[in-house]
Design brief:
38% of the residues lie in helices and 16% in strands. The chain is an alpha/beta fold. The strands form two sheets. Strands 3-2-1-4-5-6 form a six-stranded parallel sheet, with helices on both faces. α2 links the parallel β2 and β3. The mean pLDDT is 94.
Length: 337
């Protein structure tokens, strides 16, 4: 039996972007044992994925920290006798771990002077690719051609039941129009202003009879409370109260999701939710949503170079350029689809 290992990346959105490659490998090698190495915090992204036989946790900040921990990890990989490894992560360390594990075929990009650790060192693309395509290009080394690009996230009946029970407890009925706001983001310049989320919610209530839920991680709780304090209708606040899969079930239930460029925005698209994606300093061509559902990407040109990774930016004009009226108009259009 062919045994294939994917050494995955560390962030929620990027792991979602890897799922088209995982699916393509399964289609190319239907009888193979396919395993993924993943860090603990994003394990849920790949759990229940039918294209994966095994998830291997690499706990670089815990059990596998330091030389002895890495040695244990290497010996564990060696014992599994993989024949092929695709290294999606750019790091030299990940490539070294796979090399020392004795996996005979090692595929990855030619980065960080690690080519000597790879048996197939793929040249970096000469142009910027969407992250989905950046991963899929590695599949060419396995004769994978013309794969589907939509990414996937799988949730269970139990996750949906947990979401439904929570919403019922909060007074949201099955027939209510539910709009999810996800105002967080892993850095401030990607965030639409808090007052805009509040004004948008108030404007939507004037147009349609809807209820609101603010989603996000525990760290977004203060932001959610701030937005709620400015809204005329008190929203349900779900920040930090659920697992990733339960959060995805809430987004799936929503009639509309309005979110900054973030992991939860991609989760919403992955589960088929109607999604308004708010983009400012980042590029939709590189990290925009890809899926079969209904979504719209909103971004305004402001003269800035995109993508922009100036975390010290105090202007945020690219996000401020998305006016409440503009987002309201596009949100109502999407709701009617």
């Amino acid at each position: 039996m062919e045994k294939i290992l994917l050494v995955n990346v560390n962030w929620l959105g990027d792991v979602l972007f890897s799922t088209p490659l995982i699916r393509a490998i399964r289609q190319r090698f239907p009888g193979a044992h396919i395993a993924c190495v993943i860090v603990p915090r994003v394990r849920a992204i790949l759990e229940l994925n039918p294209n994966i036989n095994e998830i291997i946790i690499y706990d670089e900040d815990g059990a596998h920290k330091g030389p002895l921990g890495k040695l244990r990890f290497i010996l564990d990989l060696r014992s599994k006798k993989f024949g092929t490894a695709l290294i999606l992560h750019r790091s030299l360390t990940r490539a070294l771990l796979v090399f020392l594990a004795g996996i005979p075929k090692r595929i990855g990009y030619r980065t960080k002077k690690r080519s000597f650790l790879l048996t197939s060192a793929i040249d970096l693309p000469g142009e910027e690719l969407h992250r989905v395509d950046w991963f899929l290009k590695l599949g060419e080394a396995l004769a994978i051609t013309r794969p589907a690009r939509d990414y996937e996230f799988f949730i269970s009946k139990k996750d949906r039941e947990a979401a439904r029970a929570f919403l019922a407890k909060e007074g949201v009925k099955d027939f209510d129009v539910l709009i999810a706001l996800n105002p967080g983001g892993n850095w401030d310049p990607k965030r639409w202003p808090a007052e805009n989320f509040a004004k948008l919610a108030d404007s939507l209530v004037e147009k349609i009879d809807a209820k609101f839920i603010i989603t996000g991680a525990k760290k977004d709780l203060a932001l959610a409370d701030n937005i709620a304090s400015m809204m005329k209708q008190r929203p349900v606040i779900a920040c930090g109260r659920f697992t990733l899969k339960e959060s995805a079930a809430i987004l799936e239930r929503a009639n509309l999701v309005i979110a900054n460029d973030s992991g939860p925005m991609h989760m919403a698209v992955a589960v088929g939710a109607k999604t308004v994606a708010l983009f400012g300093p980042t590029s939709p061509e590189i990290t925009g949503p890809i899926g079969k559902g209904s979504f719209t990407v909103l971004q305004k040109a402001t003269g800035c170079v995109i993508p922009c990774y100036n975390l010290a930016c105090g202007d945020y004009r690219c996000m401020k350029a998305l006016t409440v009226d503009y987002v309201l108009t596009e949100a109502l259009k999407l709701l009617k689809r």
